Amino acid sequence: MSEKIEYSKLARYTVQKGDSEFSVAEHFNVSVGALRLVNSRSAGNYLKPGRKIYLPVEK
What we know:
- The protein has helices at 21-27, 32-38; strands spanning 7-14, 52-58.
- With 59 residues, it is of the alpha+beta class.
- The protein has one domain: Membrane-bound Lytic Murein Transglycosylase D, Chain A (Roll), CATH 3.10.350.10.
- The longest helix is centred in the middle third of the chain and has 7 residues, at 21-27.
- It starts with 6 loop residues before the first strand and ends with a strand.
- It comes from Levilactobacillus brevis ATCC 14869 = DSM 20054.
- Residues 11-55 form the LysM domain.
- This is LysM domain protein.
């Protein structure tokens, strides 16, 4: 059974050196799954310093 995730908007974040999926998710109080979903990724290799990613903002 998959978790239903609803978001009303997205915020942008610039990845910093040392960031990981887990640290970003924890800092912004979102799940790693939600981060992957809104950024259309299945693994954490998209987090490179300077890259802009989306952060889900809960509805």
